[in-house]
């Protein structure tokens, strides 16, 4: 496969040569994706649900991962495209443009979806398949690990390592579920979670994570979304949602 990004680019403003940033530095967890026309930029985090899908579900890395992420991001409000070469402008010139235009850019108060949903929806079959595989896994749950440890079947070191592995695995799975919720949208996401028994697997927190994802993709209020969703549940789930809503709503 040929190169997806030019390694060395001559800046169209200062003519200095620079290399586009396509992934976080070794000690960083995010990097900037700049608009090709203005000084706006997005922070691309390795924990972003869509980034996790591209990296873990599609198993992309390096330039292929960067290009895929660039493809599923919506256009900038200025109509420019977020591009890793920043419109062939070097970081130094981008900073100068940002300083010169600071305060002059008028931001819309209307919510704008940050994703190219047409492209994102193309990933839904693979995302759903990945989620189903996670639900079918025979690996121990937290309750099973605790039971084994209390029964003396695991030494402390093995137990702690198993807990750490479980947390990492479930964190990745939850991120994929969040991306799936973004793709499905607010009218479908919660019911899909119920039909696939995600609460039984991950607990009530998965509904909160879905609400957080919908806030990012559809602009829905977490508080309003969960307040409405609470009435669709009963027992412990409804009680736990009520407790969470009181906390974030200032009820305590």
Model description:
The protein is mainly α. It folds into 2 domains: 9-101, no CATH class; 123-248, no CATH class. The chain is built from 12 helices and 4 strands. The protein has helices spanning 49-57, 62-72, 91-101, 117-121, 124-136, 142-150, 156-184, 189-195, 198-202, 205-218, 222-230, 235-248, and strands at residues 9-10, 17-18, 30-34, 41-45. The mean pLDDT is 90.
Question: Could you give a short description of this structure?
Answer:
This protein has helices spanning 49-57, 62-72, 91-101, 117-121, 124-136, 142-150, 156-184, 189-195, 198-202, 205-218, 222-230, 235-248, and strands spanning 9-10, 17-18, 30-34, 41-45. The chain has 252 residues and is mainly alpha-helical. The model has no long low-confidence stretch (mean pLDDT 90).
Indicate the structural class: mainly alpha
Task: Give the biggest sheet.
Answer: 2 strands, antiparallel
Overall shape: it is: globular
- Across the major sheet, the strand order is 1-2
Secondary-structure blueprint of this entry?
Blueprint: E1 9-10, E2 17-18, E3 30-34, E4 41-45, H1 49-57, H2 62-72, H3 91-101, H4 117-121, H5 124-136, H6 142-150, H7 156-184, H8 189-195, H9 198-202, H10 205-218, H11 222-230, H12 235-248
Antiparallel strand pairs: 1-2, 3-4
Task: Looking at this protein, list some descriptive labels.
single chain; 252 residues; mainly alpha; two-stranded antiparallel ribbon; 6% strand; globular
């Amino acid at each position: 496969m040929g190169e997806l990004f030019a390694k060395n680019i001559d800046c169209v403003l200062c003519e200095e040569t620079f290399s586009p940033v396509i992934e976080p530095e070794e000690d960083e967890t995010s990097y900037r994706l700049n608009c090709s026309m203005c000084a706006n930029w997005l922070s691309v985090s390795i924990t972003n649900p869509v980034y996790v899908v591209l990296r873990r579900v599609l198993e992309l890395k390096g330039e292929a991962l960067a290009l895929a992420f660039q493809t599923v991001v919506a256009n900038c409000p200025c109509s420019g495209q977020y591009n890793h070469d920043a419109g062939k402008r070097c970081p130094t010139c981008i900073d100068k443009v940002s300083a010169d235009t600071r305060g002059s850019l008028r931001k819309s108060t209307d919510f704008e979806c940050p994703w190219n949903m047409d492209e994102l929806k193309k990933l839904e079959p693979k995302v759903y398949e990945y989620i189903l595989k996670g639900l079918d896994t025979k690996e121990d749950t937290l309750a099973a690990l605790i039971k084994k440890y209390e029964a003396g079947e695991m030494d402390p070191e093995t137990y702690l390592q198993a807990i750490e592995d479980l947390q990492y695995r479930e964190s990745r799975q939850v991120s994929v579920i969040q991306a799936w919720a973004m793709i499905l949208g607010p009218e479908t996401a919660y019911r899909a979670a119920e039909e696939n028994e995600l609460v039984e697997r991950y607990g009530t927190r998965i509904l909160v994570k879905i609400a957080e994802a919908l806030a990012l993709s559809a602009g829905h209020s977490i508080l309003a979304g969960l307040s409405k969703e609470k009435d669709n549940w009963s027992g412990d789930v409804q009680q736990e949602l009520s407790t969470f809503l009181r906390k974030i709503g200032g009820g305590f």
